[in-house]
């Protein structure tokens, strides 16, 4: 992947990389994220799943982040600061946008199954609460990442590090809460199914499994990042590039690929001979939720 030896280049005493960044690895993930990004945008506009736009933005950030990392790798050992800042901040922030779309997907699924009474949090508050946590996490990670990447003294480095850790801790707490809420809703609707959950042909249980698995991957990645920054700039995790790719890049590309195969449109996009509301049946946000006949799922 990359040499573990530290470079001789630094910026005002602060080493940008503690190893020689791997150009092949950075190019590989730039291409992978680029392809997945294109596919997600195609699905969003084709199926009108507007609630997955944040996920697309997260994919864009990952693509640009690894692209900037590839550019940094070509500069070894004389790295420019801006590509380092871009790869540092964008790769850090991408999963926060993933989380936003995942939070919204659960709220839509609960309404789709007419299972609002099974949710431990009122559905009209559920998405808002988790999105608020995501916003706090985003600003914490983004602000701390920008400060750390451009730090010129140890005090700024420590402050940036602390802010990032707080942002990641917020993400872990809210994502953990989200996983608990998801599991409790799932158990309740299995015990007392709604008429919609029994009659619909949509593969909603498979989508629940996707939510569990992708949430677990994002959680592992967030915990890794939190430990990495808690160790400081000379810690064992940040000083070896292999961890960036195995505990962040690989996990996040798996999440992105899974949602191209098990896209929310497979659940919420339905067709009917006549739509009495005049809505676009392919719209993620306009799917009839309560008191209407379930549509027949697309084959």
Automatic annotation (TrEMBL):
<dbReference type="Pfam" id="PF04479">
    <property type="entry name" value="RTA1"/>
</dbReference>
<feature type="transmembrane region" description="Helical">
    <location>
        <begin position="125"/>
        <end position="143"/>
    </location>
</feature>
<feature type="transmembrane region" description="Helical">
    <location>
        <begin position="17"/>
        <end position="38"/>
    </location>
</feature>
<feature type="transmembrane region" description="Helical">
    <location>
        <begin position="84"/>
        <end position="105"/>
    </location>
</feature>
<keyword id="KW-1133">Transmembrane helix</keyword>
<keyword id="KW-0812">Transmembrane</keyword>
<feature type="transmembrane region" description="Helical">
    <location>
        <begin position="206"/>
        <end position="227"/>
    </location>
</feature>
<keyword id="KW-0472">Membrane</keyword>
<dbReference type="GO" id="GO:0016020">
    <property type="term" value="C:membrane"/>
</dbReference>
<feature type="transmembrane region" description="Helical">
    <location>
        <begin position="163"/>
        <end position="185"/>
    </location>
</feature>
<protein>
    <recommendedName>
        <fullName>Protein RTA1</fullName>
    </recommendedName>
</protein>
<dbReference type="InterPro" id="IPR007568">
    <property type="entry name" value="RTA1"/>
</dbReference>
<feature type="transmembrane region" description="Helical">
    <location>
        <begin position="50"/>
        <end position="72"/>
    </location>
</feature>
<feature type="transmembrane region" description="Helical">
    <location>
        <begin position="242"/>
        <end position="261"/>
    </location>
</feature>
């Amino acid at each position: 992947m990359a040499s573990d030896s530290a470079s001789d280049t630094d910026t005002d005493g602060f080493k940008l990389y503690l190893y020689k960044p791997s150009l092949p690895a950075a190019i590989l993930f730039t291409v992978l994220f680029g392809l997945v990004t294109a596919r997600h945008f195609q699905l969003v506009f084709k199926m009108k799943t507007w609630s997955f736009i944040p996920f697309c933005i997260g994919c864009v950030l990952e693509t640009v982040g690894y692209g900037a990392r590839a550019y940094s790798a070509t500069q070894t050992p004389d790295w420019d600061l801006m590509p380092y800042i871009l790869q540092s901040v964008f790769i850090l922030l991408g999963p926060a946008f993933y989380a936003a779309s995942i939070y919204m997907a659960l709220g839509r699924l609960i309404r789709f199954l007419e299972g609002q009474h099974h949710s431990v949090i009122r559905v009209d508050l559920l998405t808002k609460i988790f999105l608020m946590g995501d916003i706090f996490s985003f600003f914490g990670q983004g602000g701390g990442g920008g400060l750390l990447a451009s730090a010129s003294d140890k005090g700024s480095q420590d402050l940036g590090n602390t802010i990032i850790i707080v942002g990641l801790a917020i993400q872990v707490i809210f994502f953990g809460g989200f996983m608990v809420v998801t599991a409790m809703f799932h158990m309740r609707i299995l015990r007392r199914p709604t008429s919609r959950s029994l009659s619909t042909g949509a593969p909603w249980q498979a989508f629940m499994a996707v939510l569990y698995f992708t949430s677990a991957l994002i959680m592992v990645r967030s915990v890794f990042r939190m430990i990495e920054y808690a160790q400081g700039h000379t810690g064992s995790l940040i000083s070896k590039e292999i961890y960036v790719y195995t505990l962040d890049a690989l996990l996040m590309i798996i999440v992105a690929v899974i949602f191209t195969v098990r896209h929310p449109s497979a659940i919420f996009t339905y067709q009917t001979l006549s739509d009495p509301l005049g809505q676009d049946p392919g719209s993620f946000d306009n799917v009839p939720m309560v008191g209407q006949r379930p549509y027949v799922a697309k084959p």
